[in-house]
Amino acid sequence: MKHKMNGSESGLSLFELMLASVAIIVILLSVISTLLSVRNLQRLDSEINRAFTAAHNNLAELKVIPAADLLAMDGVGFDAEGLEPVPNDTDDLPGEIVVTSNDGLYHVSTTVTWTGVRGRQEFILETYIAESIK
Questions:
Q1: Degrees, nearest 5: CA angle 21-24-26
Q2: Neighbours of 75 (CB within 10 A)
Q3: Which of 14, 75, 76, 105 lies 20 to 30 Å (CA to CA) from residue 1?
Q4: How confident is the model over 68-105, as pLDDT tens digits?
Q5: Cα distance between residue 83 and residue 56, in whole Å
Q6: How far apart are CA 45 and CA 42, in angstroms?
Q7: Domain ranges within the chain, ordered by starting residue
Q8: Is 76 exposed, middle or buried (0-12, 13-18, 19+ CB in 10 A)?
Q9: What predicted TM-score, i.e. pTM, was given to this entire model?
Q10: How many CB atoms lie within 10 A of CB 108?
Q11: H/E stretch holding 101
């Protein structure tokens, strides 16, 4: 005996229900993937901001040191709050100051190297400082 469906008994077939379920799962996975990517980008942004702040603050401190004393700062390490130094770092600090001199003109760079959300990262700020003309 066949059963006829009238207008009030209409609905989704099993195939349509499975297709809709697959579509919902794909959309949910895409949303979750996007949220995880955004979270990682926010963490990376925070790491870069911390590296910039540490490098900038140390560079600002170096600008007030007499130029003749800058070479003594070459190779000095500094901390960058919240950042992990790379493995096997000799001073266990993520930051390092590098100073070179050429006839009274000093090239000063502050480098922050850390292990973060995307592996090994490096941030460098550089400037030149000249001896005062008397």
A1: 110
A2: 12
A3: 14
A4: 899 999 999 999 999 999 999 989 999 999 999 988 89
A5: 15
A6: 5
A7: 11-130
A8: middle
A9: 0.75
A10: 23
A11: strand 95-102
